[in-house]
Write a structure and sequence with these properties.
This protein has about 400 residues and is of the alpha/beta class. The chain folds into two domains: about 130 residues, N-(1-d-carboxylethyl)-l-norvaline Dehydrogenase, domain 2 (Orthogonal Bundle); about 170 residues, 3-Layer(aba) Sandwich (Rossmann fold), CATH 3.40.50. About 30% of the residues lie in helices and about 15% in strands. It contains twelve helices and 14 strands. The chain has a seven-stranded mixed beta sheet, sandwiched between helices. Strands 1-2-3 form a three-stranded antiparallel beta sheet, with no helix packed on it. The chain has a two-stranded antiparallel sheet with strand order 4-5. Keywords: Signal. It comes from Skeletonema marinoi. This is Receptor ligand binding region domain-containing protein.
Length: about 400
């Protein structure tokens, strides 16, 4: 059976229940796997405020989600008739930064540092050049903070609107966050729109030798080999859309790995990064002392894992996004290998683009957010969703334990 046909084969493998634990796996032809783990435990976090008891039935159950959005996106993809990504070369580009000096992101300097010195930096009110280099079409990197993005798109004049297909948007990390809700509001979440998951550092100006801006560095990490002996990577930059190859070329020339993919695959990677940014930062921020990302992975793994699965389950039902099997292993590997001295933080201005972007009840996340605000003095002035007094939603049928793809429990 060929990929692209309308029928998918689904294989369900159920493992025999050993003593007091049971596992079940669901494998589809797309390579997506969900796991379920049943146990009964009592866990108390070091905050002294959360006590959690998990008890699930060992009976085999299946959950079914239906979301017309995923079907529509797949039909749109088939209608293009393309089996390969269209590629555009890198070259002189426009970088759009905030007109407010305090809101200019380190991302602007990062993009400049990755180029050949022929890019130009504009504010949203400036006029776009008719040509750049010898090209009338060129990438327009939108390096605005996410909280300025909606206003920017709303106020586009006709000149800028006509160049919208050349826009390049960024997601990921505490600088870029999740901008999908904003872009979707203006119909900019589609195959042709160039988007990038940031898998590289964004050094602040003056952090390099001689006071110059330090060049961005690759944050991806090799986490092992698959059954065919090929390398497995986590945390790679990924790009999709019209200028995906130009973005990849710019990063590759600077030693930064970047995958070029179709929008559907890119979207999974983006939400995987969003889970990482949300979970590790909130779990680390509720500690009495400053905690870095690596410490969360090493010492608060149970809490981080439980919250990951809560968010991932609701992504599947709420946004028709199913993360690729092994996401937990990848995210913990990134934290362990790249999270040292990366202090957990909850920037107030990024709340609606990091923690407050996930669908569903997300009870555990809301408990931690309210604790961070009420007990830790964080997120002051932010309207944190209250913890519901009564949960009307049924618990997810998908496993909510702590088994990682590498076998670590």
């Amino acid at each position: 059976m060929m990929m692209g046909e309308k029928f998918l084969a689904v294989l369900v493998v159920a493992m025999v229940t050993p003593i007091s634990h049971s596992f079940s796996f669901t494998l589809s032809a797309t390579g997506l796997v969900t796991k379920r783990y049943h146990t009964s435990t009592t866990h108390r976090s070091s905050t002294g405020s959360f006590e959690k008891k998990i008890s699930f039935s060992s009976a085999l159950g299946m959950a079914t989600w239906s979301n017309g959005q995923a079907i529509k996106e797949y039909q749109d993809f088939l209608s293009t008739g393309r089996s390969e990504l269209q590629k555009e070369d890198d070259g002189p580009s426009v970088i759009v930064q905030s007109s407010k000096p305090n809101n200019v992101l380190a991302l602007t300097d990062a993009i400049i540092g990755l180029g050949q010195g022929d890019d130009i930096v504009l504010n949203p009110s400036d006029t776009l050049p008719d040509t750049l280099g010898d090209r009338s079409s060129y990438p327009i990197y939108i390096a605005l903070p996410p909280y300025e993005l909606k206003e920017f798109i709303q106020n586009l004049n006709d000149e800028w609107k006509s160049r919208a297909e050349d826009f390049v948007f960024f997601s990921g990390g505490n600088v870029c966050g999740v901008v999908e809700p904003v872009l979707r509001e203006f119909g900019m979440c589609r195959d042709s729109m160039t988007q990038v998951v940031v898998g590289f550092s964004t050094p602040a100006p003056g952090t390099g030798l001689g006071g110059a801006t330090k060049k961005p560095e690759d944050l991806s990490c090799m986490i092992g080999h698959d059954t065919r002996g090929e390398e497995k990577w986590a945390g790679e930059s990924q790009s999709c859309g019209k200028w995906n190859a130009a973005v990849a070329s710019r990063l590759d020339d600077n030693g930064i790995r970047c995958k070029t993919v179709f929008y559907r695959e890119w979207r999974r990677a983006m939400w995987e990064r969003a889970v990482f940014d949300c979970v590790f930062n909130i779990v680390g921020c509720v500690r009495e002392e400053k905690t870095d990302i690596a410490d969360v992975a090493m010492f608060y793994e149970l809490e981080a894992s439980d919250m990951m699965w809560e968010l991932v389950n609701n992504l599947r039902g709420g946004l028709a996004v199913t993360l690729i099997y092994g996401f937990e292993d990848r995210l913990f590997s990134i934290a362990e290998m790249r999270g040292k001295d990366d202090i957990c933080e909850l920037p107030v201005e990024m709340f609606d683009y990091s923690q407050n972007v996930f669908p569903g009840t997300n009870l555990m996340l809301k408990e931690y957010l309210n604790y961070a605000k009420d007990k830790c003095g964080l997120l002051q002035g932010v309207d944190v969703p209250p913890v519901p007094s009564q949960i009307d939603e049924l618990p997810s049928k998908v496993r909510m334990g702590n088994l990682r793809a590498d076998g670590v429990i």
